[in-house]
């Protein structure tokens, strides 16, 4: 393995920890653990990073997790990448001021790439993670849904990624929506494709990871990190075991 970074994920909706099945808000699993308690558990297991998403904001705009973000970053050593509903430069600034190390930008990255590239210059490419969520089309291509995966954008993966890679993109989170929340395994062909298009970009695998072997497999096709969601929350593997595996390699 190439010492991949592991990002345990906490998705929040209505103040609760949830996971969606294939990005469908109507297919939601809620968990009893409170978001801060879950973050604390991950920190105690040794996580260095946390992936925190405001699902309400992803759909409707208006990031609401600043108090939770502050609580996490002041009570642990974890670094946090977080987003949901980022619509403006002021949103990015506010989330960074609340303690985030990176801001995740999804829908706006697809709709307004020139604006987002301008933020690379102001905040630096280390402070921004571009999230391109993808669905495969009948012709084998990849389209980019937006607004919490509820709207079609008409944009395709390759030209959007090429624009960002040319502008110096460093961190890309790419989720195959059809795999998200399914524990069916990551889409390794997708990640091979991304590595071939933009080998200089650090890609985080997301969607479908079910065990430590999947983390190893994602690393093997060029991913620099992996976002760990449903399988981790439901105890299919232990974060400490996964971190130890990464550190041994």
UniProtKB/TrEMBL annotation:
List the Gene3D superfamilies. Aldolase class I
Task: Spell out the GO cellular component terms annotated for this protein, sorted alphabetically and separated by semicolons.
Answer: cytoplasm
State the organism named in the record. Lysobacter firmicutimachus
Question: Please, which domain of life does this record's source organism belong to?
Answer: Bacteria
* Catalytic reactions of this protein: 1-(5-phospho-beta-D-ribosyl)-5-[(5-phospho-beta-D-ribosylamino)methylideneamino]imidazole-4-carboxamide = 5-[(5-phospho-1-deoxy-D-ribulos-1-ylimino)methylamino]-1-(5-phospho-beta-D-ribosyl)imidazole-4-carboxamide
GO molecular function terms attached to this record: 1-(5-phosphoribosyl)-5-[(5-phosphoribosylamino)methylideneamino]imidazole-4-carboxamide isomerase activity
- Kindly provide the name given to this protein in its UniProt entry: 1-(5-phosphoribosyl)-5-[(5-phosphoribosylamino)methylideneamino] imidazole-4-carboxamide isomerase
Q: Where in the cell is it found?
A: Cytoplasm
Q: NCBIfam families given for it? A: 1-(5-phosphoribosyl)-5-[(5-phosphoribosylamino)methylideneamino]imidazole-4-carboxamide isomerase (TIGR00007)
Q: What are the protein's UniProt keywords?
A: Amino-acid biosynthesis, Cytoplasm, Histidine biosynthesis, Isomerase
What is the gene called? hisA
- The active-site annotation reads 11, 133
Of which family is this protein a member?
Belongs to the HisA/HisF family.
- Output the HAMAP family linked to this UniProt entry: HisA (MF_01014)
Q: Name one GO biological process term.
A: L-tryptophan biosynthetic process
Where's it mainly located?
cytoplasm
Name its pathway.
Answer: Amino-acid biosynthesis; L-histidine biosynthesis; L-histidine from 5-phospho-alpha-D-ribose 1-diphosphate: step 4/9
EC number(s) in its UniProt entry?
5.3.1.16
């Amino acid at each position: 393995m190439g010492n991949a970074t592991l990002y345990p994920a906490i998705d929040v909706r209505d103040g609760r920890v949830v996971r969606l099945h294939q990005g469908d808000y109507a297919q939601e699993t809620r968990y009893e653990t409170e978001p801060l308690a879950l973050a604390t558990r991950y920190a105690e297991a040794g996580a260095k990073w946390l992936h925190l998403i405001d699902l309400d904001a992803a759909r409707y705009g208006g990031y609401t997790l600043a108090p939770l973000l502050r609580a996490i970053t002041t009570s642990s050593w974890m670094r946090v990448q977080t987003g949901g509903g980022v619509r403006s430069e002021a949103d990015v600034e506010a989330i960074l001021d609340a303690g985030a190390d990176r801001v995740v930008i999804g829908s706006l990255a697809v709709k307004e790439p020139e604006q987002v590239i301008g933020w690379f210059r102001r905040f630096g490419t280390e402070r921004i993670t571009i999230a391109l969520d993808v669905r495969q089309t009948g012709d084998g291509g990849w389209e980019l849904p937006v607004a919490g995966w509820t709207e079609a954008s008409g944009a395709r993966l390759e030209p959007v990624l090429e624009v960002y890679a040319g502008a110096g993109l460093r961190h890309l989170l790419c989720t195959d929506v059809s795999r998200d929340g399914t524990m069916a395994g990551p889409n390794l062909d997708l990640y091979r494709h991304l590595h071939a298009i933009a080998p200089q970009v650090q890609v985080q695998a997301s969607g479908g990871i079910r065990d430590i072997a999947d983390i190893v497999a994602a690393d093997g096709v060029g991913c620099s990190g992996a976002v760990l969601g449903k399988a981790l929350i439901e105890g299919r593997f232990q974060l400490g075991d996964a971190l130890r595996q990464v550190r041994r390699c």
